Amino acid sequence: MQGKGLITIVAIILGLICLNELLPTWYANKVENQANALAGDDPVKYQKELERLAGDTLDLGFTELHYTKAKEKEMKLGLDLKGGINVLLEINQRDLVNNLTNYSTNPVLLEALDRTDQAQKNSTKPYIENFFEQFQIVNKEKGTNLKLADPEIFGNTNLTEIKFNSTDQEVQDIVSKRIELSTGTAYEVIRTRIDKMGVTQPNVQRVPGTGRISVEMPGVKDIDRVKKMLQTSAKLQFWEVQELPEVFPYFQQLGTLVSVKADSIGVPKGTNFDNLININSLQTNGVANVKLSDTAVVNKILNSKIAKDARPSNIKYTKFEWGYKPDSGNEGNLVLYAVRGNINQKAPVDGAVETANISYDELGRIVVDMQMDSKGAKDWATLTEKNVGKPVAVTLDNVVYTAPNVINKIPNGRTQISGSFTQEEAQDLVNVLGAGKLPAGAKIVQAEVVGPSLGAESVSSGMWSFAIAFLIVIIYLIVYYGGAGVYAVIAMTINLFYLMGIMDSVDATLTLPGIAGIVLSMAMAIDANVIVYERTKEELFAGKNIKEAYNEGFKFSLSAIIDGNITSLLTAVVLYVFGTGPIKGFAVTLGIGILMSMFTCVLLTRVLIFNRLNKGKGLSVWTAFSKNLFRNTWFDFIGKRKYAYIFSGIITVIALASILTQGFKFGVDFNGGRSYVVRFDKDVVANDAQTSLQNTLINKEGEESAVDVKTFGTDNQLKITTDYRIDEESLEADLDVEKKIFEGLKSYLPKDAKIESFKDSGADNYGIISSVKVGPTVADDIKKGGVLALAISLVGIFLYILLRFKRWQFSTGAIASLVHDSIVILGAYSLLKNVMPFSMEINQDFIAAILTVLGYSINDTVIIFDRIREFLQEKKSLTLKALFNDSISSTLGRTFNTAFMTFLVILAIFIVGGENLRGFMFALLIGVGFGTYSTWFIASAVSYDLLRKRGGKKAIAKLEPEDEKERS
User: What region holds the SecDF P1 head subdomain domain (predicted)?
Assistant: First the structure.
């Protein structure tokens, strides 16, 4: 065989590379398992044993393994396997534009920004593109003829490269570049903060074309701390403070307005503003002392248009900001401060911190000492000199940390932040300040949290599903193909080894969908062996000897294998480009698995088989059970196509009717909102819990929010989805939702249940074990991305089939079958959404399942089309109908074996793989069944009818006219 030596060398080198990549993972797990065995369930003892064992070194001769280095290089596990948090941060693009315009108050600019904010809610374009469009619209409507280079827009000292005569296009290019650079700066700041937290194997990536940054931190347990760290912009500012005597008359006026216009403001009738602000208990330089539960109502009143319009001139630009946390001895309240603002809301001192460290004041309380840079020091000296004897507020991200009275001028730029810090809070603040400030505010627009207990269960269920699927494939291959099946198992095992090694080498993260991708790629990899072996059987039945049969089997199967794998690879690429998070993991494993199967199952298997045959040894390609299965099997597929059309027509009509009348149940990643999986220490009735939560999750207008509660897997687990505070992406909103859910479920929890334990299911046998938050803008992006991915996949497959088979009729037939399969699956999810005992939501996972089905189904179709092309040359006397029937019938063995094995593998994952994968696998089960059917009765039948109308076999080959006589 040509190239035998090269293939062997490549296989050995690839194997050594993969071994070198996987050894650190093996060793790190070995040490941790030893420490766990010695420590039992004692976490303190486990840490001590781990530190002791970490000092050991394993010398393998060609390399030495150290635990610390091995831990750094081990394979990354996604948060669904390890627990942790995955967030999508969005940098506030409006803040960036404001900064570049030097906080201009030009009315055209401000209106353009307001319109851009609205346009972004229904747009997938970058913010800055929408801004330029809206600016031109407003500019034209008002007839102002402002240029972007105007000093009141971008022609200021912040953008010195813009000249007075710069064209709008030149300014757009400069501003877009600066926005991109600012997002890059934000990425570096975020990454530095995470490094300072000491998180193991974080994954921080920019999302191309957006102002978003994806952060995955497996193993993290203090979720609230992480969210706060990521969203803090570190915008340290110093402001003058207005005290109560200046503000009190305005508060009196507000008290009257609220009593009269409560409905217009949006607060309940009878709201007493004077009682809310509670100024009699005030002990600081603030202007109000508000109960924590009342802060949202006070915010709503102060930010209402009625309240803003009523402001007197002395507080026209005042910023009302809350204290960092309740003061000692005042735990149930939060102080409200009045910060003296100005027309552009630019702080007198916008601190650029050079150094920050933890210190202690004269009373032994923890404080943060800071040293400003030269400009900050100069501004600070001016501010303190001006306000001797008066209070000055130190704010970070519009939260007041401290507001002490200035004793004297501070000329050296040194200052101190106090705020009843814990050691951890002070360290986080030092880390944030030390990492630098974000160029603009950041908010979490999408978040997924998985508790450690659920992660451990996912690993267990994933491994079990993998083991069972692997065993099923091994048994089936050996039972069906005998000795040749053994070589297929060897190739599959090597393929798996290569797949894991390459994933580790490219720093890919293994996720639960990734494990599903590995198992599925394993099943699809066997397809190459099945194609070869089925063709080899045909050659043996034709009277050829064993070597000739195998040679012909590999030779004539290569085209079909390449075509089938390229279409599947195209699906994997589309999934990777348009997917996010776990879907990318699925796409990566599927893509690498397909590429490796081409090498192991086609090239390496051939080397191994011919190495045996060249030694004069035989190699069976069947067993007594399978020898005559599907041999000489023939069925009139084309003759029965009308019955198939009727059946498919009925199924399609039912599916479309359900889709149009009942619709779908969309997941939070398509609708937006928050979803929580909650575990209880006893069984809970979902409907009862839903009623309880509806009475708790009431919005500020007094209306019930949408709540959906379903049993999730077992009867002691619920999946709770709500749109309560859906438009708010702050940490405060997250905490409020969690608190309300805790209150609504309290009657189903242990009597001594605390909210801290409820939010950390790793501590007890109850609580939130996973959560997902998706903002409405991100949900729209995901939905549009999913539709685009489907469209691109269909177009790509159509073009590839057209390229390979030269006739649009084949492409149209293939696409018809794929559309048919998609409608059937969508119809099933619409019809059964309230019937099945597992999630039937339309979400990102579902889109991945649809695309996987398309790749699988087209693989089958390509095999038949390839056989039609071959028979055109070998069986020229056949009619078009006979040509199609013979081609389909001759590939029945291959189609059945591949479909049956794939079905068994998916069924194993469906049963054992865990609740999170059931909906995904159910779509694949339907897809495999109907995909096989549609290959025979839709793709082939539609192609046949289209070709028959265009002249039969003459439409695909230059044959004699009398060869095409069939017209039925």
Answer: 352-440
Dist CA 744 CA 19 (whole Å): 52
Q: Residue 964 contacts by C-beta under 8 Å, 6 or more apart in sequence?
A: 879, 880, 951, 952, 953, 954
Residue 814 to residue 790: CA distance in whole angstroms: 15
Contact 573, 584 (CB under 8 A): no
Radius of gyration, CA atoms only, the chain: 33
pLDDT (tens digit, 9 = 90+) per residue, 158-205?
Answer: 788 888 888 999 999 999 888 888 888 888 888 877 777 766 667 788
Give the span between the Cα atoms of 29 and 8, in whole angstroms.
31
Separation of alpha carbons 590 and 588, rounded Å: 5
The answer to whether 415 and 380 are in contact (CB under 8 A) is: yes
Residues forming a β-bridge with 66: 57
46 φ, ψ (degrees, to nearest 5): -60, -45
How many CB atoms are located within 10 Å of the residue 423 CB? 9
HEC per residue, 667-718:
CHHHHCEEEEEEECCCCCCHHHHHHHHHCCCECCCCCECCEEEEEECEEEEE
Query: If you average pLDDT over residues 825-847, what whole number do you get?
Result: 85
Question: Euclidean distance between the first and final Cα of the chain, in Å?
Answer: 47
Cβ distance 934 to 817 under 8 Å?
yes
Determine how many CB atoms are found less than 10 A away from the CB of residue 544. Answer: 16
Alpha helices in 345-418 (DSSP H): 374-386
From the number of C-beta atoms within 10 Å of its C-beta (0-12, 13-18, 19+), residue 371 rates as: middle
Residue 514 has pLDDT above 80, yes or no: no
The DSSP call for residue 937 is: I
Distance CA 574, CA 598 (A): 20
Position of tokens 């390609």?
621
Residue 267's alpha-carbon distances to 253, 257, 350, 697, in angstroms, are: 17, 12, 35, 16
Q: What pLDDT sits at residue 1? A: 54
CA 917 to chain centre: 15
Cα(17)–Cα(11) distance, rounded to whole angstroms? 10
| pLDDT tens by residue, 221-260 | 777 777 777 877 767 788 999 999 999 999 999 999 998 8
Q: What is the mean pLDDT of the chain?
A: 83
Own/partner pairs, 248-252, CB within 8 angstroms, 24+ separation: 248/279, 248/287, 249/312, 250/310, 250/311, 250/312, 250/315, 251/277, 251/279, 251/287, 251/288
Alpha helices (H) along 542-677: 546-578, 582-597, 605-613, 641-661, 668-671
What does the alpha-carbon distance between residue 540 and residue 553 come to, in Å, rounded to a whole number? 10
- Residues forming beta bridges with residue 883, ordered by sequence position: none
- Listed in order, strand segments (DSSP E) in 741-805 are 767-774
Taking alpha carbons only, the member of 678, 669, 764 closest to residue 713 is 678
Given a contact cutoff of 8 angstroms between Cβ atoms, the answer to whether 723 and 775 are in contact is no
CA 14, CA 97: separation in Å to the nearest integer? 50
Q: Using CA atoms, how far apart are residues 406 and 389, in angstroms rounded to an integer?
A: 5
Rounded Cα gap, residues 634 and 885, in angstroms: 8
Alpha-carbon distance of 820 to 655, in angstroms, equals: 10
DSSP single-letter state for residue 666? B
Under DSSP, the state recorded for 62 is S
| Inter-residue contact 380 to 239 (CB < 8 Å) | no
Give the E-state strand segments of 766-843 in sequence order.
767-774
CA atoms within 13 A on the CB side of 75: 25
pLDDT digits over 649-679, tens only?
Answer: 999 999 999 999 988 888 777 777 888 888 8
Write the DSSP string, 261-330.
HHHHHTS-TT--HHHHH-GGG--SSSSEEEEGGGHHHHHHHHHSHHHHHT--GGGTT-EEEEBSSPPTT-
pTM higher than the cut 0.90: no
